[in-house]
Amino acid sequence: MMAKLKFIRSKYFLEEGEVEQLAQVPSGGNPTVKKSKADDGVFGAPVKRYDGYDKVSGTARYTFDVQFPDMLHARTLRSPHPHAKILSIDTSRAEALPGVEAIIHHGNVPEIPWYGNSRLFDPHLRYVGDEIAVVAAVDERTADEALKLIDVEYEVLPFAVDAEKVLEKGAPVFHESGVLAYNPWIYERGSVLEGFKEAEVIVEETFRTQVAVHNPTEAHISVAKWDGDRLTVWDSTQGIYSVQERISEALRIPASSVQVFCPTMGGGFGSKLEGGKYTVMAALLAQRTGHPVRLGMDRKEMNLVVGNRPNSVQKLRVGAKRDGTLTAMELTAFGTNGAYPGWAGCNFPLIGTYKCPNVKTDMSSVYTNLGRSRPFRAPGRPQGTFAMDSILDDLAAKLEIDPLELRLKNYAEIDQYSNQPYTSKKLREAYLQGAKQFGWTEKWRPAGTDSGPVKRGVGLASQIWSGGGGPPAGVTVKLNVDGSADVIAGSQDLGTGTYTFLSQVVAEGLDIPVENIRVILGDTATGPKCPVSGGSLTAPSLSPAAWDAANQIREVLLDGAAAVWEVDKKRIAYSKGLFTVPEDDTKRATLPEMIDAIGMGTIVRTGYRAKNVEGYTAQSFGVQFAEVEVDTRTGKIRVLKILAAHDIGRTLNRRLLENQFHGGIIQGLSFALMEERIVDEESGRVLSTNLHDYKLPTIKDVPEIEVLIVENDNDTKVNSMSVKGIGEPPIIPTAGAIANAVFNATGVRVKELPMTPDRVLMALLSEV
Amino acid sequence: MMAKLKFIRSKYFLEEGEVEQLAQVPSGGNPTVKKSKADDGVFGAPVKRYDGYDKVSGTARYTFDVQFPDMLHARTLRSPHPHAKILSIDTSRAEALPGVEAIIHHGNVPEIPWYGNSRLFDPHLRYVGDEIAVVAAVDERTADEALKLIDVEYEVLPFAVDAEKVLEKGAPVFHESGVLAYNPWIYERGSVLEGFKEAEVIVEETFRTQVAVHNPTEAHISVAKWDGDRLTVWDSTQGIYSVQERISEALRIPASSVQVFCPTMGGGFGSKLEGGKYTVMAALLAQRTGHPVRLGMDRKEMNLVVGNRPNSVQKLRVGAKRDGTLTAMELTAFGTNGAYPGWAGCNFPLIGTYKCPNVKTDMSSVYTNLGRSRPFRAPGRPQGTFAMDSILDDLAAKLEIDPLELRLKNYAEIDQYSNQPYTSKKLREAYLQGAKQFGWTEKWRPAGTDSGPVKRGVGLASQIWSGGGGPPAGVTVKLNVDGSADVIAGSQDLGTGTYTFLSQVVAEGLDIPVENIRVILGDTATGPKCPVSGGSLTAPSLSPAAWDAANQIREVLLDGAAAVWEVDKKRIAYSKGLFTVPEDDTKRATLPEMIDAIGMGTIVRTGYRAKNVEGYTAQSFGVQFAEVEVDTRTGKIRVLKILAAHDIGRTLNRRLLENQFHGGIIQGLSFALMEERIVDEESGRVLSTNLHDYKLPTIKDVPEIEVLIVENDNDTKVNSMSVKGIGEPPIIPTAGAIANAVFNATGVRVKELPMTPDRVLMALLSEV
CB of B354 within 8 A of CB of B621? Predict the structure, then answer.
């Protein structure tokens, strides 16, 4: 109970009231932006989803729903071998099948570069799933039938599917660069050599995480249609602009000739960030046949082709003083890159989550004959945090320090990577408020001290993410003559709420009801370029741009009112759709009246996200507390509760925010306990290619989730809206927190994800 | 031959070379806008139609083509009586028909005001065609079948269909205001009393023109679809924004809740300027049924309901000095207004086409139990010009003055209505160049002097139209990162070339190829508000707005380049997609490179048409010369040639311009000789409700047409682009010119349109 006592005495813990005081929003800042209070404007209010009706009623139109009377359906012939070369391909039998309109393959399309030195159709096949040919036919069944009639002669080559074995034993080389996709990514600050010398305690462990596959609800799909020289593409994408750019490059046509639509889409976790081969293939087939062409993937193809979170093997070593002060952290890690350049970086949190003067990381990406790795919700973070926060708990146990206190002890006041201050950081408040609300003090006890075969335990892990927004973003606002507004952005809504928060920001900016706003997303032709919907970039990039546009319109209105009324602009007040001159009762106009008097028609302005304030690092921060039950007889883990306490800047919409947290935490839990791509080493085939074999959680797996946001509305350095992205943060610490809770319950460390019953039992047995 | 001699001696006629000199474009003006020369930029060049491929290939998507799997088809029950009240309506038999989903009528929808004191469904029916009920069913046939099963009991009331008889004998009153729709529109300047006292010759005549029906190729049609609280409407319209406004008013929802689409449409001559009852009815049915609803009209309904150019009875009196100087012009006129407020003004040209100090016009609109009048391509102009230029030719004959000389004699140097100068006027050059090219001197001889039963004659008439552009217009330009651009405007392309000229203006403004531009029209949500496509407003309103947007972007680029290169902005040159600093070879960047360096992503700006320069009147001017053959045995007129010589400002696209002229002249010829709505006075029914009975010209009726444009690229007072609208001008003088040619051939005046063989023969007989 040593640590428990220390915990209670800790100077980091404050009395009731003091916590709230610490977490108070500082005064000052941007006075025109209202506080995140539901009753004080639309920010933070749980405004209902803009696209809620459409989705619930089934009228929302996904790419899957796009239909044309003369549309062709395409299907893809994929490599059955993990490594082979095509010696010959004969499509004559397939072409003879009634209803087949066109077949494309490496022999009859131009060489379009893809994946570095490879190309769109590469006769050198590098994994089971690699594209060989695509058939367009009058319906999907005919296209599928035709695939079977394509005769391909292969030279079958040796292959490798296990990164660890590749590094140990070597493997066939199928890229010029050898077995590594890149040079190892090495980072060092200070001197780990010196750091470990200073250390009074050293812990060393190796952690393994599995390959996880994105598996968004909506499968990848494109519909391509040509009208003369102009191409229209409907795509289930996280980046209409990246799809446009990819097509424009591949087909060598101007961006203005490629209109990409994605008004609604069914989820994306990174696999839909870039323009896909299938999209360009659909465009080629549409060009060749003169028909619109639809080319999608089934669940099996999704599990083979579109990407994954790479696995990782992380060898970690951490040194500390007796009081818990970190002196050194060192990582050597590698992961499987798959068959084409992707990236298998696995542990970025180590670099900056905690304060430590001496850090070294060495991460490698190993080519294997499998589908390629892609960014997956917080790439390199959930797996890294699992390892890092696990070893920190092991360190805490060794030092008999409360795990929370260890984190507070090593709290990073400034950015460890750049030595710059943060734009703001309220992680300490998150630790303290979260712990209080979770009942950490009451629930935590030293690891493995629970009795009974079903043991309870609690654990925590931290989160850091560059959530301040990114590349240029533009948002156009059009104020209509009746005082309603349209908002147009070249972004897309993955289901995360882009439509909704944009309507809120503009409602607030123009002081009009949120119901009087339409939002147009998912069209490259009309929407100014916005970043991909990934990397937690959307809200912090788009909300300042929308805010800027609304404010520009306010200025136009006030300038106009000043001219119309011939009074000084400063004397004019505007609130809730009404212009007045406070000292002059004769001057009074509604918004539509003033728009009419100004005489511009609709007032349209495009706003931009201002560049980042130099000299500061923008990050979001958080901690999650998990409570679990482990049945030591079956190895089964039951997560009872996750409490997430995060500093994510301003809350734009409490409901959307909770939705994001729920989604991220469930996906984190799933990563911790369930998801795993299973590969047969003998054949090089993926065995888990459907949602029966690849396990995803259902509602029965979902624990109680509590979301505690440390209000932070005045981080004007992060951006004009004080908004940090929340797409990634929720998933980052979940697996680590659960792993630590399992350790806390059982006193046994499970070092490999997912923590399936067999692995838990093995860990328990190894301790016996 | 008297007049012919005078003609040749006239001081108004110049020698070869002098004409060209007179017509020279003055030097100076806006140096950044290139001249209308095909080889010197894209202005004036016959750039091919932006939407040409789509239309020729059949892929263009009209409202007619909009389909949804669950869409319902609606049909309208219309009044069979010219005047009646609905005593009862029973839809039970119709509702029982399988496939019928909903029926709306005055008894079951809210009272939505329409046509002043009337409403959307008015149980007081005022013409054959008035809306009684609309049925939505699974297909059109079922809806049609259901119409027959609706039982309506009527109180049949007395009616009137002839405006002249209404004024003579009175008629049943069915609007509170009585038989006149408005107070007579009276205009007077100077004193006609004094003017006629000064006159040495007075001519007095009464002219009659027929009712003409718009009959665009594409019928009026709407498709309405609700998604929750938001309505999407596809509409074949000349004004997406007027449709939006009408729906928004009628249904009391914000404009942002109504998205109106019209990317492609098949012509409109004024009947599609406003939101129609059918559009709101489709929206109501869609709301009621939860399905998208399509409600269109067949050709019969088009000929009854959507509007017409009202007929006119014009009593004209003109006084002049012996030398042809006009001293007074007086008009008393009326026309049929139809059953609801429209407007039957018939002769506006009289007010300002020619110089005359004393003018009075008195125009009335008479209610009749017929479809209501609507603006029709140059409302009140072709019929007015026919009468005015006819009586002027009669005056010329009486004075033995060449008709052209009479016009030159009374040339209005300043605007007769406002006494303001014109922004520019090159009508004199048009008269002279046109006459020269037409061979007026050689062809004209005094009226009726041709021998033989088939007589040739020539005639001319003038045109004036307020073509300088109108209400506010905004155009958004988005410069993409690869240097291509998108142009977005809340306008629509009736087939007149809006897509094409916008691409040209922006290509010129950004100095990029026209092929690298996409234009998005026909969407209220994304396009800034633009005027209706009518009134010749589009090109002079939108081209300056697009030019402004492109220039704003140029400034952003030059400011950006100055910042990136750290050189004075003035030192930077930009041409054909390349930035350079002329004195510094190290500074050189392509447009995409510079966009990337500036780092805004897409550069988006919305431009506006600047307000008109005060103190000037903007008008377009023109003259048309006609040559005809009249077979005096059959009364048949054959038009051999029309030469149109116009001052319409800058030519944006020579091909589009000729297309507009061809269309306008053919429609003018058709108005002169063929089109006529025929009404049965006994029943109050329109007899000409199809394109067999309502005669439109075919290619065999089309004469040789020559278009001569007086170049006028530097009228910077009219707008920044020196562009005047050309939608209306071509139709205005055609009928007058043909009528005068007929008079010139036969020596007989046909005072009623259309000049069908029977009327020609009657006129010839009356002269015998």
Answer: no
